[in-house]
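ARCHIVE CARD
Drawer: 12
Card no.: 0347
Subject: one protein chain, sequence and derived structure
Cross-reference: see card 0346
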Amino acid sequence: MRHHADRVIERAHAADDLTPLTASWRRSALRHGLDPAAEIHNLRLAQTELATRREALGHFLTVATQPIDELYRIVCGSGCAVALTDGDGILLERRTAAADAAVFDAWNLVPGTDWSESAQGTNGIGTCLVEGRQVVIHRDQHFLSRNTGMSCLDAPIHDPEGRVIAALDVSSARADQTEALNTMIVALVGQTARQIETAWFRAAFPAARFVVAGEGEQGLLAVDRDDLAIGATREARRALGLPRQGALKPRPLIDLLGRDDDLAGFERAERAAVIRALARADGNVSAAARALGVGRATLYRRMRRLGLEGR
C-alpha cells in the first residue's frame, strides 16, 4: 500500500505527465488534499439524509429501476455489483448477490456512501462525474490504496437539459477481473446509461410526441401540439447544433429539420404558421405580424380565433 501511495504522489506532482488518470490523481492530491495512504472514514450519510437524496430524484429512480435490474442480471454471474449515485456521488442504489454483499460492504460500496472524487480521490464514480464521460478505473488506478482491490466501470447519466445528474457503476472486487473483461462490461454500462437517459427524457415530456433527429434511437426531439420543439436529447443537440445544456428554447420543428411535418387542414396550418412566427420573433407580436405580412391588430384577431391569446 505504501508503494502505491508513493507512486501516486510522485506522478501527481510530475509536470510532464499529462494523462487523464494523472490529472485525476493531481486533483485528488492538490485540489482536495487527500493522502493516498489514508484510511477514509465517516463518508456515509445518515438514513434520513439518504432518504432526502432519494426523494430529490423521485421519479427518475423509478424510471431507472428496470434498466439497472437488466444490467445486473447480465453481470451478476461474474461477481459484480451494480450501483447508481446522484450527481454528487452519493450512492443511492446497489444490486449485488447475497454471497458478494459482505465484500462490497467491506469496500464501503453501500447506499449513503460518498464516492465523489473530492471524498475518495480517483474512482470510477467520482471521476466519471467530474469529467462527464465514461471511465474505467482498474484496481491500482484508484487514488486511495484501500480501493485498489476494485475495478470500477462508470458512465454518467444526463437529464433532459443535458446536465449530469447521476452515475451508473459496475464494480468488481475479484482479483481475476481483467481489463479485457472490463472493456466488454463498460460497453453494457454505457448502453444502459443511454437507455436510462432516453427513458427519463420521454418521461419528462409526457404530452409530447417524439421525432428522431440525427442517428440512433437516442437522438430525439420532444414536440408539442403546436409543432414546436420543446426538448432535445444530447444526441439531437449535437446533430442539430443546439446548445449542449439548458432548457431548449421552443422553436418550430420545421426550422430545425427543414421540412413541414404532417400539417393537415387550413386552420391547423394557419395556427402553426402563427405559432412559428411568434416563436421566431421571441413572442413579439409586432415583429411576428411584419413577418407574416399582416397588421398587428389583424394578427391579434387571428390569435384570438385560433386560441393563441396569452402566448
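Annotation on reverse: The longest strand covers residues 164-172. The CA atoms of residues 180 and 208 lie 42 Å apart.
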